[in-house]
Amino acid sequence: MTINDLFHRSDFLIIGHRGAAGLAPENTIASFRLAIELGCPMLELDVQRIYSEDGTPRLVVFHDDKLDRTTNAKGLITDYSVEALEKVRCADDLAIPMLEDVITLLAAHPNVGLNIELKSKATADLVAQTIQANPHIPVLVSSFHHDELARFRKVDKATPVAPLFARWREDMRDLANNLDAVAINIAATSLTATRMQALLESKLPIFAYTVNTPSKADKLQQLGLKGIFTDRPDKLEKYLLS
Ligand code: G3P
Ligand code: MG
After folding, report:
1. Is 63 an annotated catalytic residue?
2. Is 145 a catalytic residue?
3. In sequence order, what are the residues at sequence separation of 6 or more whose Cβ sits closer than 8 angstroms to the Cβ of residue 210?
4. pTM of the model
5. How many Å lie between the centroid of ligand 1 and the Cα of residue 233?
6. Using a 6 Å cutoff on CB, does residue 44 contact ligand 1?
7. What is the pLDDT of residues 83-131, one digit of tens each?
8. What is the C-alpha to C-alpha distance for residues 87 and 73, in angstroms, rounded to an integer?
9. Domains, the chain, with CATH or none
10. Alpha carbons 41 and 11: distance in angstroms, whole number
């Protein structure tokens, strides 16, 4: 299974945003497991670089800069070592996973793809190394940090990439082409029918985040989108593969 296979397998790809973030604590193994159980053909997660006490850089799966919103600890995640983070708990007493933990889960689900979002800078090289060590996982790498994504493209010329955009920009297609991207990922709130028409001229598949209702999903599919990131895969059953 490759990312290309996944793009072609479904008419409209449902990507589990931070797992199934509307149903389980985001970016936890429980959330990823639930998204898989609900039939998501692809999962999305955010990675940041932290260090072990011995100075080894590692990739942690976490969205915010700070621990405050989603855990029982406070402060910047980058101020914590891997060992210190092991004691931190998300809701439901769940641990914060490292990227390897999610890869271990996915090893048992070879048909499920993984969208790794480079959430912070200085993640490209480590992500490339991790992908190289786990070639069986179909991975798409994306980022709002287009310089970091360009760095990734330089060190890994094979893994598919997609730039992320929080807002509409006229140069999106150029940026995607420069990265040799396979898709454009964009905030659903910044899309209109006219803008979609312009974007479709790029011939690249377009994926929008974060879409949690079937009515919004239907509308975006009619506009020509190829899929969505969702917190609520349970509501999008009709698009999920059985
Ligand atoms: O990759 C889609 C989406 O995850 C981007 O926004 O803030 O949820 O990481 P965010
Ligand atoms: Mg994300």
Report:
1. yes
2. no
3. 17, 188, 228, 229, 230, 231
4. 0.98
5. 16
6. yes
7. 999 999 999 999 999 999 999 999 999 999 999 999 999 999 999 999 9
8. 9
9. 3-47+100-240 (3.20.20.190)
10. 12
